[in-house]
Amino acid sequence: ATYTVQTSFNAGDFSTQYLTEHWLPKIAEMTGGRVEIALTPNGSVVPAKETPHAVGLGVIDGDWTSVNYFSGLEPAFAILGDLISGYDTPQQMAGFCENGPGEAVWQKALDEVSDGEAHLVGCAPYSREALPARVPIRTFDDLKGKKIRAPEGLASAVFQAAGASPVSIPFSEVYGALEKGIVDAADASAYVNNASTGLNDVARYPLYPGIHSMPSMQLSFNREKWEDLSEADRKALRDWFYMAMADLTRVVAEQDAALAAKDAAAGKVEVIDWAQADRDRLRDVARIEWEKFAAKGPLAKEALDANLAYMKQIGLLK
Amino acid sequence: MRRFFACCAAAMDRVSVFTGQACASLLFACIALSALEVVMRYGFDHPTSWSIEVTMALCATAWVLSVGYVTERNRHISITMLEILVGPKLWRRFRLIQILVSIGAVTGLILAIWSPAMRVIARPEYSGTALNSIQPSYLKVVLLAGCVLYVAQLFANLIRWFQGTEKEDGGGH
Amino acid sequence: MGIEIITILIVLGLLALMAIGIPLGVTTLTVSLVTAVLYFGERAGFFIVSANVTEVLHKYELIAVPFFVFMANVLERSGIAHTLFESMAILGGRFRGSVAVQTTVVAVVLAAMSGIMGGEIVMLGLIALPQMLRLGYDRKMSIGIICAAGALATLIPPSVVLIVYGLAAQVSITKLFAASAVPGLLLASLFIAYVLVRVRLNPSLAPIYDIPETGLPFVQRLRFLNGAILPAVLIMAVLGVIYSGVATVTEAAAIGAVGSLVVAAVRGELSWTMARDAMRRTALTVGSIIWLVLGAVSLIGIYNRIGGGDFLRGMLTSLDIAPIWVIVVMMAIVMVLGTFLEWIAILFITVPIFAPVVQDLGYDPVWFGVLFAMNIQIYYLSPPFGPACFFLKSVAPKDVELQEIFAAVMPFIALQAIGLLLVLAFPDIALWLPSLVE
Ligand code: NA
Ligand code: NA
After folding, report:
1. pLDDT tens-digit readout, A43-55
2. How far is residue A55's CA from residue A223's CA, in Å, rounded to a whole number?
3. Range of B74's domain?
4. Ranges of each domain in chain C
5. What is B108-172 written as a DSSP string?
6. Which of A111, A167, A183 is the best mutation test for B, with the most CBs of B within 10 A?
7. Is this model's pTM higher than 0.80 or not?
8. Considering the domain boundaries, does residue B170 fall inside one?
9. FRET pair for C182, CA 20 to 30 Å: which of A34, A145, A233, C406?
């Protein structure tokens, strides 16, 4: 059968095209044609933040969504969706879901926003966002006093705690604000995307690999439809999701790295890569903000505890 | 009985006009807030975190709650080409159908947004931004209020249709 | 039931409801509710409608619409158009057809301040039409030029049509505003050229109009430029702010709204009653627009979900013709819809389906947006549903019949079509300016 899955990637995005070309045929192959997925772009059926309910009601069969959209519905998703300055690599974060305690607590949060009608297939990030900056921010201490565009709640709190002053402006304003120095740095997107929107032309000191955001996505299925699948097909679907995300991560990272190296060599930008010590210091500051955020609800607390436990397990935290 | 209905319609008209004109003042406030934000951002280098969410909430309120006023003045955009073709008598029948279909559709919309609106009242939905306001919850509730106002005014128009006291078409183009 | 049949049923349902005069917002809402409930059942169907409808209120860019409408309402009540018209008369000098040319120039300046069409035609209809008729200008030419030039309000930025297009097609409104400026001026030039050629061929169409000041040398006439100073400042404030990227389109619209009040105050025309009435009229206008948008968005969401978007896209892309002809087909569809539908309805029916195809074919959706806005120019004039003609009728002398107006605009529709074809053939006319802004 064909399952309609709405993604939070936009119609023209590289990710949408890459998944459609390389990975949608594969799931049909893996399940002998029993599971075919039709990926519909962001907002095509319902707005991104409504997908859990839409999945629950069977309006769409599944969603492949950046769960940051749900953080207003359930604070746990702010922590699960983008634990600011938490993991250093997308692989670590994916491990939290695939091999760690991630899926269990994630499913609980998903139950909360879908009335228990949506089943989590898997969860993983696909890129570490770069941070375009118009002034050099080379170390943790350089953050002090910098004006950084960060509209999301947790990102804003972490930057504030690190001594910067977060500014909330709409994304459409980021270019102008960086150009005119209204902000020194701006929460935006992956390196390649920032380059194509011209942000790196006006903000010539991009922090890459980034220091804050790593948005995570979920693949969920309508519970009934999920339960109708055979055990083998369910396993295939989950494996497929993690393979697809790992592949997408790899491709995006390769593109980012190649372009960053090229830009740096051409003298267009100075790419700043923080030392591990600075990343660790930011993580320590961020951790206090995570804790405050987790106080917003029992599930948020559970989500954070699961993350902390896994980070200790892999040696990111002591 | 006839007088009672006439009074109901007149009262509803007054409510709608009053709300609509109050909405006009809200739009004033929106303009002032947006202009102020530009001054704060570029004049004082000090953008606010609340301006956009507040402006949107105010504007949505004005936008949705002016519906009674719009309905009372018959200013909804419609195609009235047939009016000349079919003549005034048949068009009067069409007017009745217009009102009844509108009542049906907006009632349908009320049914559709009812449970989402009740849900956010029971369990508020926040914007998830630094401000983390309840703007998303508010917008759902205000839309529900707008729909109720819309239906109420449609019933007032229905009374006027039966009593032959309909107002002139506002020519809503 | 196949998507083909459902599509036909939906179209028939829409047409039937519209024909009996049911408000367009209610029409689309009814059809979407019925489709949703039949297809998904009550719970899921209601959910999909409510989710999409609520989302409309989260569109920040849409807030620019009431601001621009208010700005136009204030300007309409000030004497700014009148002063502008007089200044242009003196600056322009004496030549055959001068008043028609001057009307077009004033229309362009007004268009750069106003984002909606109605007010501008009313202003021109009140100021320029009586003047031209009094001077013995050909009636048809006078009426036609006012409708056509007045319609430029939504092609020359700012433009509410382009704002809503930008939202529906998900493209930058700033770029759209940059791209539509030159095509707008192109149309204005076509109108002027047409008038000049016709009065040259047939001088009886336009007697030469003489006012004493036009006898002065040009340099001395320049001091009559002051009527254009305030409009210039206001245009700079709004378009300058947008093009430089200092503020969002919404904020620029707010600046424009405040600016229009300042202009009215400077001219001594600002009063509490005037501002209040302008705001009430704004509430009425935008209060009816929002239901149109709500209904249209709801219908599109449902239609996409049942595979309609894919179906129509598939049909367009499977056409066995060169890509540019696909665009031509789209333009023809918009033109046909434009004879009887409201522009927002046309936009929401066509753009969500066309825009992805345009991109797939390798064209720039900004360019397509300009083509769309130019097509909307034709929609304003084309009978039987020609809003510009209705607006002019409402202020024209009693003896001007709607039929006469429709006949008068025909040559101008042809000019609009020529302009559209030029931009279609030479996309750089539109895309040149945005490439500079980049
Ligand atoms: Na304009
Ligand atoms: Na038309």
Report:
1. 888 889 899 999 9
2. 8
3. 2-163
4. 60-270+307-437
5. HHHHHHHHHHHHHHHS-----BSS--SHHHHHHHHHHHHHHHHHHHHHHHHHHHHHT-PPPP---
6. A167
7. yes
8. no
9. C406
